Amino acid sequence: MHIHEINPWRTLIAVAIFVVILLIGFLTMPKPLLNYEKSMNESVDALLMSEDYVYPWELEEIIADKPDSIVIFDIRDNFVFGQGHIPGAENLSANTLTFPENIERLKALKEMGTTIILYGEDELQANGPWLFFHQVGFDNMKLLLGGYKYYNEHKDDLYSTMDDDAYYSGFPKFDYADMAAPKEGSELFSDSENKPVEVRRRKKSNIAAGGC
Q: In the sheet that 115-119 helps form, which strands lie side by side, from edge to edge?
């Protein structure tokens, strides 16, 4: 006979203690700082919408007026940031964006209704962080088209970029496949007669006289 069949109270006490430990574990489990609110497809769709972009020429007024309702974050590393950045931007490198203290800062900016502009060396560098924060509910975060590289090339006259779409990183200006394809009237030279190669076996030489 098993010992718990003799004293069932021990089994009940053991089960009760186990349940209490589980409850304490669930209640004391730290809550995640961020929760996903949108799917990847929803975020990608938002990335294609112009209201989630900041165009380079719009920086002209933002830099001049320095509105309290807008904060610009440079997500490049601190060394590169120190070599040059958009005036008024703060450095918040990509590898520290999800640190608890930075998450709290971003949440506070969202609660205040502040618009956050992210930029990297180019637009592609900031796409990933922007998509992530958009998925977890930061609908006040926008993406600078072209990134710092494009801004730096046109910082002396940003308004001139209004009619330029070269800031769309990742989209080739030319159809290289079409350019490389043979054009009408051109021919590829090839040997039309595929003659079989005749293989000749080398004759064995006779052993020299006087050999072993």
A: 53-54, 141-144, 115-119, 70-74, 90-91
If we measure between CA atoms, which residue out of 112, 120, 206 comes closest to residue 169?
120
Look at residue 185 and tell me whether its pLDDT is greater than 70: no
Residue 135 makes CB contacts below 8 A (sequence gap 6+) with: 36, 37, 38, 39, 40, 42, 43
The answer to whether the CB of 86 falls within 8 A of the CB of 151 is yes
**Domains (ranges, CATH) in the chain?**
40-163 (3.40.250.10)
CA-CA distance, 11 to 18, in Å (whole number)?
Answer: 11
pLDDT, tens digit (0-9, with 9 covering 90-100), for 94-119 = 889 889 999 999 999 999 999 999 99
Mean pLDDT, residues 140-151: 93
pTM of the complete model: 0.62
